Amino acid sequence: MVTVRDLPLEEYWLPGNASCPGCPASLGLRMLTKALGNRFILVVPACCSTIIQGPYPKTAANFPILNIAFAASAAAAAGVAGALEFQGKSDIPVVVWAGDGGTADIGIQALSGVAERGDNIIYICYDNEAYMNTGIQRSGATPYGAWTTTTWTGKKEFKKDVPMIMAAHNIPYVATACVSYPIDFVQKIQKASKMKGTKYIHLLAPCPPGWRFPSSKTIEVGRLAVQTGTWVLFEIEYGVFKLTGPSRALIDKSKRKPIREYLKLQDRFARMSDEDVEKLQKFIDSQWEHYKLLMETSKGMK
């Protein structure tokens, strides 16, 4: 069990980076370095993190980074991992750090290929639920009802379930996390780093400009996402599903906060009608029923 006292004092994601105030990507990167130190190689496709690491020749990252084309991050990471293995350095984690656009949409073919081959990488999608770096356009991970610059009246489709898509590849480890629960995220990174094969972590990253909330409320919004059951913390380890962190107690619906508490803090949901909110609630409830079934199935696998 990891505690705050176990985390290193050294900072490898340095101050002065070019992120927005309250940026969840910077928070997540700091947590990543606390989990692994500076002994890993990061692969970053086109995304916000391409910008916030700093313009060449200066950078806020005190660790190796390979910036790569939008669609190619998983394939590039597999190549780096293969080169390290050839050199006898397979104990150095290779980590992809990609947004939801470069994961759920543009990069999913390379990610699926890596998972099918079982390449030895950790893939982390920091999910801010839209293409934030290019102007807040909707992605496959944008939730139902959310405003973006390409869904002015609210998105009409539900969020793509990438963690379950990855679980269908039968990889060793799939997990979800949220920047508002750093110890849960750190533990999952460290667990993944000790496994061989393809590992996938999907990190909820509330974005103040894109989600339209004050930059001081990033952590609060992320916590409400979990507390309302809108975002569920879980892991699937060698096919065994279990809830983690606060989500363990929320299998009982009566313990979840109303989703309106989460929605009302974000102006991107301002145009949702009561019928829209009810439709989203039913979708969330159906997901929880699916998780209950997975838990029952996993009990029989232990």
Descriptive overview:
This protein has 302 residues and is of the alpha/beta class. Helix 1 crosses helix 7 and helix 3 packs parallel to helix 5. It has helices spanning 24-36, 48-52, 73-86, 101-105, 108-117, 162-167, 182-193, 208-211, 218-227, 259-263, 274-301; strands at 41-44, 65-67, 94-99, 122-127, 173-178, 199-204, 234-237, 240-243. Strands 2-1-3-4-6-5-7-8 form an eight-stranded mixed beta sheet, with helices on both faces. It is built from eleven helices and eight strands. The radius of gyration is 18 Å and the shape is globular. 37% of the residues lie in helices and 13% in strands. The chain has one domain (4-301): Rossmann fold (3-Layer(aba) Sandwich), CATH 3.40.50.970.
